[in-house]
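User: Show me a protein chain along with its predicted structure.
Assistant: Here is one chain, sequence first, then structure tokens.
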Amino acid sequence: MGAMPPISEQEWTVAFEKYKQIAQFKYINSHFELDDFKFIFFWEWFHRLWARLLGVVFTIGFIYFLVRKYFDRAMVLPLIILFILGAAQGLIGWIMVASGLNDTNLYVNHIKLAMHFMAALLLLCYTLWFALKLLIPQEKKTSNNSLYSFTLMVIIILCFQLIYGAFMAGLKAAMSAPSWPTINGMWVPDTLSNQSWINHPLNVHFVHRILAYLLVIITIAWFVRAGNVARQQSSLLLSKTRWWPLLLIIVQLLLGIFTVLSAPKITFGKFGQFETLAEIHQLAAMFFLMALLVSLYIVKPARR
């Protein structure tokens, strides 16, 4: 619809009539009045407006600093790449939204939702990595091949977990098993052998839990290993930063449990306890990724 939301009552009515044509209204939100539609419209519109503002602020700042020659030559290309990643994120976001604007799907496609989320995290990580290159001098970094590989492995596993977290959100999978420590009384769902591990809510829920437990175990092992390396090489920076992944994974696990247990309190169309916990859970996962990325930057591979 463009950058501006509906202004007049007539424009709002036209937009609401369009919303009534898609499956989400017909099968879930058929009780919506115009004010209810305005509420969900606001968050979608504000999300896009904020994305556009990011692009505008970046472009103005980039041109200004470039003209004033505040950038080193080596900084220009990474900043251009950063802008391209931001634009790609917007494109993926529209593809995701469009997947829910039809007469079949109740929500956006969960795989496209995961693509949108991971593209945002790629943008976040690239920005953080670029900042770390400007903030942390090479002499403060620690050389250790095994810890570098270990950190990279944890990040890769975390990426799979983040993808499944997006699947959880897209499939509303928390509601499929609002219990803990078992999944509806089962330790292993009976759907694993005959249903998709990507599209079935219960299977996605199970994989998400297993990856969470795995991440807790290997993060504790990583914490111990990082402590040994920090003592061996007298790295004060690594000694401090290694605590953040450990603290965040524990918080993240607890948030995940509380989020799942609050799933029966979901009220469709309303933002309540479950949604609040789910958002904090997602935010903690992003902080966990950032903490690991800082450690990956600090621990460089040793030269042969």
